[in-house]
């Protein structure tokens, strides 16, 4: 059973041993499994210096602490990593697989709230400087992962939800294994032609392509591009059906939308989303000048296009 958890972007600047670091969290989502061990949280981040320049191909030390009750609460879990950033300053890891004396699977998610504290040593050592703490705001996903058998007895129909249902402001196009959580897209396009960027070809390091990744990508884009009307800000500022937590989907989330309720017909539902025949922006960058697009025609082609192109937008949200 795989469930995802989304946390907003965090931007912090610290000084440690006269070295400043800017640490930008791009995406943070969980894959919690009843049948597989260990449970883990996928994590991706970009490491920059105080001038905003990425720290490429550099060894860094990372420490994650999950605290119970508050940001200064008791430690429920803690672990460390030594990672080398890639050319883009990215680190990718799975919380729950680092060096630790704790057991991630023993965290009682029903006894929250929980907060995750991030610390880093940019020299690759263990002199960690705390970057900050953020609440795991979607703990119900994690809670459900460890209690699903008792709540629904493994019956995916217990929540009586199906892909294609109109629900919570839009159309369900993805359900996780519980059948109770997933993704919803707006029932119509937010734009039939809008640029991906605001005014400049600047990377937001929004490279995440997975389920749940669009949320972090969107926050990173808006933080980088600022105010204005463009694809990511259009989604983030959307208030629809009583909900205001919409975001620009990742390329994989677009793929699920196309295959399940678009023209892909994987589930045999046909195009019930009323999609246009042209391409839609994803929140997933390709490089500083281009981002990934997906057509909603029969082939469902995916390609990268220049960010100043005027393309369609369909917002989504998680539930």
Summarize the structure.
With 319 residues, the protein is mainly beta. The chain contains four helices and 17 strands. It has two domains: 11-146, Immunoglobulin-like; 166-318, no CATH class.
* Residue windows where pLDDT falls under 50 for at least 5 positions: 1-38, 138-157
* Shape descriptor: globular
- Give the neighbour order of strands across the main sheet: 1-2-3-6
Q: Helix share of residues?
A: 10-25%
User: Mean pLDDT, as a whole number?
Assistant: 79
Helical stretch tally: 4
Percent of residues in beta strands? 25-35%
Rg from C-alpha positions? 20 Å
Largest sheet, if any? 4 strands, antiparallel
Straight-line distance between termini: 16 Å
What's the total count of β strands? 17
- Give the SSE order as H and E letters: EEEEEEEEHEEEEHHHEEEEE
Domains (count): 2
Derived from helix and strand composition plus strand pairing, the structural class reads mainly beta
Q: How is this structure best described in words?
A:
With 319 residues, the protein is mainly beta. It has two domains: 11-146, Sandwich (Immunoglobulin-like), CATH 2.60.40; 166-318, no CATH class. 14% of the residues lie in helices and 35% in strands. It has helices at 139-152, 213-225, 231-236, 251-261, and strands at residues 11-16, 19-31, 40-49, 59-68, 74-84, 90-95, 114-121, 129-135, 166-167, 170-175, 182-185, 191-194, 279-285, 290-295, 302-306, 311-313, 316-318. Strands 1-2-3-6 form a four-stranded antiparallel β-sheet, covered by helices on one side. It has a four-stranded antiparallel β-sheet with strand order 5-4-7-8, with no helix packed on it. Strands 9-10-11-17 form a four-stranded antiparallel β-sheet. The longest helix has 14 residues, at 139-152. The two termini are 16 Å apart. The relative contact order is 0.15.
